[in-house]
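pipeline: protein-struct stage 2 | run 1193 | Cys-tRNA(Pro)/Cys-tRNA(Cys) deacylase
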Amino acid sequence: MAGRGTPATALLTKKGVTHRVHAYDHDPRAESFGLEAAEALGQPPGRVFKTLVADVDGHLTVGVVPVTGQLDLKALAAAASGKKAKMAEVSAAERATGYVAGGISPLGQKKRLPVVIDTSARAFDTIFCSAGRRGLEIELPPCELANLLGATFAEISA
């Protein structure tokens, strides 16, 4: 794995969390990076999650949802005890997380943002999420992800 480390993988190693890193050849022309990851890894798309950054009442908040779904902004706002949510500007998301859009991981972000994970993640022993680089995914139990992030679970996928 030389040269494949990211802040996300470093955090998991430092905390001693059991995980697996999966690499695949990313096609920059792919229309959906999440669906590309699911196909490349031979996983059902509902088990592969994308990390989206939203602005909830002026505060950046992370939603982790299956790549097959969309982030329900109303549900995210409610789960974050807010009133209104909108997708964050890409530049704001990249600045806050330290990752490039399309490769944002919920782990190892520059700023610790509140995180809400869609409840569908609980249906799996392990889920996949970005390792912080396009073409690199982390597989770990959803409860471990939530514990590390201080995240909550809520129905936030539309």
